[in-house]
């Protein structure tokens, strides 16, 4: 709004216009905030799925190396000289730190639990639980993802 006063032209916003803008910004912030809060859970789900992909790839690479060498012995020595403990019949990495733990290049950001070889779990260090993890079975090489509680 322009106003002529004392020979000068004044321009600016009225108090009502400023209040309306603040109310609109408040409404936008209130609707956008829950979207940003949910990103943490989505990120955790993505990390668990990424770990599951890494586990599956590691099993495939170690098995391929096992069959390519043709020795049917454990451990398998990878190209980078890392040794991976495997089943001598299937070439699947064992559910130990010397098995699947060595087969993975890195488990940064995850806490592994090798207590049960047929159910080795990899949980995100921040926020992982029994309902937010990747599980590895050393008998079959299968990986199961649980993300209901991420």
First CA to last CA: what distance?
A: 52 Å
Which oligomerization state do the chains in this entry correspond to?
Answer: single chain
Strand content: 15-25%
Shape: elongated
Average pLDDT metric: 87
Main pleated-sheet profile: 4 strands, antiparallel
Largest sheet: spatial strand order: 5-6-7-8
Order of helices and strands: EEHHEEHEEEE
**Amount of helix:** 40-55%
Give the low-pLDDT segments: none
- Tell me the radius of gyration: 28 Å
**How many beta-strand segments?**
8
* Structure class: alpha+beta
What's the number of helices?
3
Short recap of the structure:
The protein contains 3 helices and 8 strands; from the N terminus they run ββααββαββββ. It is of the alpha+beta class.
Describe this structure in words.
The chain is of the alpha+beta class and 150 residues long. Helix content is 41%, strand content 19%. The chain has three helices and eight strands. The protein has helices spanning 15-37, 39-69, 97-103, and strands at 2-5, 8-11, 76-77, 83-84, 110-113, 120-124, 133-136, 143-146. The strands form three sheets. Strands 5-6-7-8 form a four-stranded antiparallel sheet, with helices on one face. A hairpin with a 2-residue loop joins strand 1 (2-5) and strand 2 (8-11). The longest helix has 31 residues, at 39-69. The model has no long low-confidence stretch (mean pLDDT 87).
């Amino acid at each position: 709004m322009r106003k002529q006063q004392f020979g000068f032209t004044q321009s600016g916003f009225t108090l009502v216009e400023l209040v309306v803008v603040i109310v609109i910004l408040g409404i936008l912030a209130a609707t956008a905030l829950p979207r940003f809060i949910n990103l943490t859970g989505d990120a955790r789900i993505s990390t668990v799925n990424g770990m599951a992909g890494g586990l599956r790839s590691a099993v495939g690479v170690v098995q391929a190396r096992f069959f390519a060498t043709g020795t049917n012995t454990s451990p398998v020595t990878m190209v980078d000289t890392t040794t991976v403990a495997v089943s001598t019949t299937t070439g699947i990495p064992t559910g130990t730190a010397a098995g699947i733990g060595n087969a993975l290049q890195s488990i940064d950001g995850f806490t592994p639990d090798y207590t049960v070889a047929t159910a080795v779990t990899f949980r995100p260090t921040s926020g992982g639980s029994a309902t937010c993890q990747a599980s590895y079975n050393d008998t079959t090489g299968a990986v199961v993802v649980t993300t209901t509680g991420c």
